[in-house]
Design brief:
One of its GO terms (molecular function) is 3-methyl-2-oxobutanoate hydroxymethyltransferase activity. One of its GO terms (biological process) is pantothenate biosynthetic process. It holds the Pfam family Pantoate_transf. It comes from Candidatus Aeolococcus gillhamiae. The protein is α/β, with parallel strands linked by helices. The chain has 2 domains: 229 residues, TIM Barrel; 28 residues, no CATH class. Helices cover 41% and strands 13% of the residues. Strand 4, helix 6 and strand 5 form a beta-alpha-beta unit. It is globular and about 70 Å long. It binds 3-methyl-2-oxobutanoic acid. 3-methyl-2-oxobutanoic acid binds next to strand 6.
């Protein structure tokens, strides 16, 4: 297992070398340790903790307090990964000072960078956070915190206007000092165009294969998510089924008096 810390510059170097990389979400120390063992270079403590871990319908109810709590846990499990903490809805909307204060809290919880959703006015907020010495990851396209404005979880950037806006926002975020960009839920040709247009690495989710990196939610990747998977996700394991089978086997063994046996008892 590597003991060389991954930095924002390493991601940039991977883009320059045309070496695709991955980022995976984590919300707790157990998954963070496993991702570290797999030498996943970047871990995102995403506000998707809301729907995947806390049972909310969307990411909108997630608070800074919750983000800091999960960020601290992940930081304990992955000392050498590049750790990115999501700024939750409402944590950078009220003022630039509020945004900087919340970004500082995430860094003090062990994050090396923060992620903000959106372009437009968010660019100025990102620029100020970068000025304060905190690396910023942008996030464009189907930004889940804008679900109500979009009228649902819909692919973004299909019209010529939206396409231009996303390209402009990507360039503006790069200009503001963002070190990378998540592109979510956009047509693959738009993601490819953004990836060509900026020199910072793009990280796609539902954005096709031409981004510099790809990100997946850990519970999708591991097959823990129940119900239909998003079109863009692939389960590389079926841990959810194994959890159910293990819990059933435990209950059956207890009912039949097979567990605990003498070997698992104290004498
Ligand atoms: O919160 C999250 O998990 C994210 C990824 C889907 C990029 O923002």
């Amino acid at each position: 297992m590597t003991t060389v810390p991954v930095t924002i510059h390493d991601l940039r170097a991977r883009k320059e070398r045309r070496e695709r990389f991955v980022m995976v979400t984590a919300y707790d120390v157990a998954i963070a340790r496993l991702l570290a063992a797999a030498e996943v270079p970047a871990i995102l403590v995403g506000d998707s903790v809301g729907n995947n871990h806390l049972g909310y319908d969307t990411t909108l109810p997630v608070t800074m307090e919750e983000m800091v709590h999960h960020a601290r846990a992940v930081a304990r499990g992955a000392p050498y990964q590049l750790l990115v903490g999501d700024m939750p809805f409402g944590s950078y909307h009220r003022s630039v000072d509020q945004a900087v204060a919340n970004a500082v809290d995430l860094v003090q919880a062990g994050m090396h960078a923060v992620k903000l959703e959106g372009g437009g006015w968010v660019v100025d907020v990102a620029a100020r956070i970068v000025e304060c010495g905190i690396p910023v990851m942008g996030h464009l396209g189907l930004t889940p915190q804008s679900v109500h404005a979009f009228g649902g979880f819909r692919v973004q950037g299909r019209s010529a206007n939206d396409r231009e806006r996303i390209l402009d926002d990507a360039r503006a975020l790069q200009g503001a000092g963002a070190f990378s960009l998540v592109l979510e839920g956009v047509p693959r040709d738009l993601a490819a165009a953004v990836t060509r247009a900026v020199s910072i690495p793009t990280i796609g989710i539902g954005a096709g294969p031409d981004c510099d990196g790809q990100v997946l939610v850990a519970y999708d990747l591991l097959g823990i998510t129940r119900g239909p998977m998003p079109k863009f996700a692939r389960a590389y394991a079926q841990i959810g089924d194994q959890v159910i089978a293990a819990a059933c086997a435990f209950a059956e063994d207890v009912a039949a008096g097979r567990f605990p046996d003498d070997e698992h008892s104290y004498h």
